Amino acid sequence: METTTVTHPFAPIYDKNSQILILGSIPSVKSRENNFFYGHPQNRFWKVLSALLNCETPATVEQKTQMLLNNHIAIWDTVAKCDISGSSDASIKNVVPTDISPIISEAKIKAVFTNGATSQKYFNRFQAKALNIQAIALPSTSPANASKSLEKLIEDWKAILEYLD
C-alpha cells in the first residue's frame, strides 16, 4: 500500500470541565473520510464508552461530541502529522506530535489515557516529559485488535471511571 503524508484533519474535543483525556494515534482513513474520531464502523470506541457511561451509543458527530462533553471526557490524538500506509499504525513514520498542552492548561484533566500501544509510544516519546504527565495505557478499540472482545475491552476501560465525577 502506498504511503501518504497525513495531517490531522480536525480539532480535539474538550471543554473547561473535561476531567480525562483519551488519546489515540492519528485518525484512520474512515475517520478522516467522516471528519471525526473513531469513524470506522468496526472500531469499538463508541460502544465501549457508551457501555461504561450507561448511555445509548451515539450515531452522529453531534451526539458523540455531546456524550463526551456531558461526561467530562476530552479526546485528541498524539500524532499531528506523519507518513502512513492506509490506517496502519505500524507503518507510521516521520511523526510530528500534537500539542496537548492547551487541553491540559484549559481543562481540569485528572488523568490521561492512551487508546492502544501506538498512542502510548508517541505520548511517551513526545508529550510525557514536556508535560510531566504519565498516561495510563488502555487496549486499542481498533478492529485491528481483534483478540480483545467487546466485553474484555469494556472491563479494561473501566479504569477511566475512577477519574470522572
For this entry, give a set of tags.
single chain; 165 residues; alpha/beta; Uracil-DNA Glycosylase, subunit E; four-stranded parallel beta sheet; three-stranded antiparallel beta sheet; 6 helices; 7 strands; 33% helix; 22% strand
Give the amount of beta strand, in percent.
15-25%
Name of the CATH class? Alpha Beta
- At the fourth CATH level, what is the homologous superfamily? Uracil-DNA glycosylase-like domain
Task: Summarize model confidence as the mean pLDDT.
Answer: 96
CATH architecture classification name = 3-Layer(aba) Sandwich
Task: Give the gist of this structure.
The chain has 165 residues and is an alpha/beta fold. Helices cover 33% and strands 22% of the residues.
Description:
The protein is of the alpha/beta class and 165 residues long. It has a single domain (3-159), classed as 3-Layer(aba) Sandwich (Uracil-DNA Glycosylase, subunit E), CATH 3.40.470. Helix content is 33%, strand content 22%. The strands form 2 sheets. A 4-stranded parallel β-sheet has the order 3-2-6-7. A 3-stranded antiparallel β-sheet has the order 1-4-5, covered by helices on one side. Helix 2 (45-53) packs across helix 6 (150-157). It is globular, with a radius of gyration of 15 Å. The termini are far apart.
Would you spell out the secondary-structure blueprint of this structure?
Layout lengths: L2 E5 L12 E5 L4 H6 L10 H9 L7 H10 L2 E5 L1 E7 L7 E5 L3 H6 L4 E5 L1 H15 L3 E4 L11 H8 L8
Parallel strand pairs: 2-3, 2-6, 6-7
Antiparallel strand pairs: 1-4, 4-5
